[in-house]
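ARCHIVE CARD
Drawer: 12
Card no.: 0347
Subject: one protein chain, sequence and derived structure
Cross-reference: see card 0346
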Amino acid sequence: MAATDSQKYRFSEAPVWELQRAYYEQLGLKAWNNDQVPQYITSNPMIGAAYAEMIFGFLQDRATQGATEETVTLVELGAGAGRLAYHVLHELALLKAYAGIALPPLRYVMTDLALKNVEGWRRHPALANFIDQGALDLATFDAERDTELKLLVSGETIAPGQLRQPLLIVANYFFDAIPQELIYIGEGLVYDCDVVVGQTEPAPGLTLSEQLRRMTLTYEHRRAPRFEDARYPYRDVIALYQRELEDSHVLFPEIGLRCLERLGQLSRAGFAMITADKGDHRLDNWRFAEPPQLVHHGSISLTANYHAIQHVFESRGAEALFTDHHYKNINVACILMLESPKQYVNTRLAYRKSVARFGPDDFFSLKLLADREIETLRLQQILAFWRLGGYDAEWFIQTAKRISSLLADANDEEKLDLRSGIHRMWTSFYVMPQRYDLALDAGLILFEMDMYEDAKPLLDASAQGDDDPVSTVYFCLAICSLELGQEDEARAYLQRALELEPDHEEALTLLAALG
């Protein structure tokens, strides 16, 4: 759709949303390369563990209610890079093994609008085991239209009314990135905010991201009687806004609400949703709100209206769990649209422990501080924060140089904890195109601690995966091989180092000594 200065659109039908869809469909998983579209805040090991605790609690609650035979289906909306799903599944497997109790089986379904993403997940080595075990399936899903799920791996179609267990939904950075209505409340009346698009025909050669960034929006108000019609399905919350708000622009998640209603139809027993977003659930945060500004990060996003979602489903008997304290970066909620939600004690306790007391938003706020203070931290403090974050690879990469500088004074216990942490990090690492080489940094730390048997496979993984390897890696591999009594391998590594750097003195000396 080409926009001109004279064209006006309802906000939910503006060309920006068409460009948004095209952006994800065109780039696929590349949209998240090197955080072009942010994913860390909603996809790190800490938030994965928090979600796993709530899902585990939900499975416990279903078991307590005697529903252990039927599979529980979990649908992740807009699963993006796939990193969150992996961390959740990884942590769930650990929780189940540790607890050793009877639970209903879980089928995790990753969904996205873009078929490229779904195909990318199917090829990702970290997800292969979960797919092979039947714990993970994949599907495309259009939040604006679809009424059923066609599973790519099993070939099964989940149609309305098919599920006997309640549906679990995960929606991270989802509601802020799909079309929303924009209304204006003034003097007790409701107006549609039509948008006038300032960008004319796209300039030749611009990427979709650049087109989105160049697009400017201005707004005009138009009376919107449909929102005041008694038959409008969300009339109650609109009426509340008319009573309570004045001179306020409100993003209204009509498409998001309809999406949840269609998903809820898949199960005969309701749904529970875990969601995190830039989203306000307090009515006060919408008072006197100015027109929204598009946030650009490859694609675009807005603020999600959690207040409307909470109000609509609580009026139908749900319990919505939000933190008592105000969020700063990401608002994490759990909505139980279930019969007798108070009976889901373990789910609610897990939310209290993993979100309300200290959750993903608190962790991210601390990490922003810790990132600035790395050069002042001691090794015990680095290790403590690493544990808090679930042995997060990003924290390790950020602190690797600092860790190296502290090793001379490290005691044996600290070194053993470092080795254990590196193992846990590596076995739970979800590979994505990033600027860093995790295997190299982890391998070098182990090498510096004389843990050659542990260092060698990581250094070898770095060498195999690097299109432009350096001689130092092969020299370190040669030392590891010698320490492990593998002289033939050491010679081969030294020869490879000398191919890359013929004047490498240490490699020349060592190779001569080996004869």
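Annotation on reverse: Residues 133 and 326 are 40 Å apart (CA to CA). The longest strand covers residues 189-197.
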